[in-house]
Specification:
Distance between the termini: 82 Å
Number of helices: 6
Helix content: 25-40%
Number of strands: 7
Structural class: alpha+beta
Radius of gyration: 23 Å
Shape: globular
Strand order of the largest sheet: 1-7-2-3-4-6-5
Order of helices and strands: HEEEHEHHEEHEH
CATH class: Mainly Beta
Length: 220
């Protein structure tokens, strides 16, 4: 009997890992934690010798970007757009972070080269970066899957809400809907993004010894 129980236990399949992502396709609203491909920001150039004069406006395409606008704001905005897709709502712009292929960044970015720097980033212990796991094919709206991504919370940009939805309605041409983070991974991204941008710069750290202070101690 004991042997049968041992054989049954050894034959049991390993526990299934929870899914981190959901596929996203056309016709849906934007989600916080959604990853989109090839969105375009329109960037002005300024006339030589006249820095206040815009000479041209050029497209800047982002290969991969992550939506970080609050999800409830995106949902409310979407409900208002059902009557008019180009409506100007309270949500005038969508906030995004640029993302890159993690392994490429670890090789090319001098700021994060080296195992000692990369280990906390992979474990999401570095406050500036969010490491996003590899995406399986079934969880990708483009049915391709994707390598692990690295999000830099300092690399921010905005696109007018009406404009990003116009871009997303472009059919098979860029940009494309790809995938989004499920709960609680979307909330984890939100919490870490908010924490990074809520940080306070101190004129003196707590661990700095008194002997390193520029001002002499006050004698009382």
């Amino acid at each position: 009997m004991a042997g049968d129980a041992a054989n049954t236990a050894s034959a049991a399949p390993p526990p299934t890992e929870p899914d981190i992502y959901l596929a996203v396709r056309g016709g849906e609203r934007l989600y916080q934690g959604e990853i989109v491909e090839k969105v375009v920001e329109w960037v002005p150039s300024y006339a030589a010798g006249a820095p206040d004069a815009v000479s041209t406006v050029s497209p800047m395409q982002y290969e991969i970007a992550v939506v970080v606008t609050q999800d409830c704001d995106l949902a409310q905005d979407w409900s208002k757009r059902q009557a008019a897709s180009t409506a100007e709502t309270d949500l005038s712009c969508v906030l995004l972070c640029r993302a890159v292929i993690a392994e490429s960044a670890f090789v090319s970015d001098e700021r994060i080269k080296g195992r000692d720097l990369q280990k906390p980033i992979r474990n999401n212990k570095n406050e500036r970066y969010q490491y996003l796991a590899k995406v399986p094919t079934a969880a990708d709206g483009a049915a391709q899957g994707h390598e692990a991504l690295l999000v830099d919370f300092k690399s921010l940009f905005t696109i007018r809400t009406t404009e990003i939805y116009r871009q997303l309605r472009a059919g098979n041409s860029p940009p494309r809907r790809r995938f989004r983070l499920k709960t609680p991974w979307a909330e984890h991204l939100q919490c870490r993004f908010t924490g990074y941008h809520a940080r306070i710069g101190l004129p003196r750290d707590h661990f700095m010894p008194e002997t390193r202070r520029a001002d002499p101690p006050v004698v009382r």
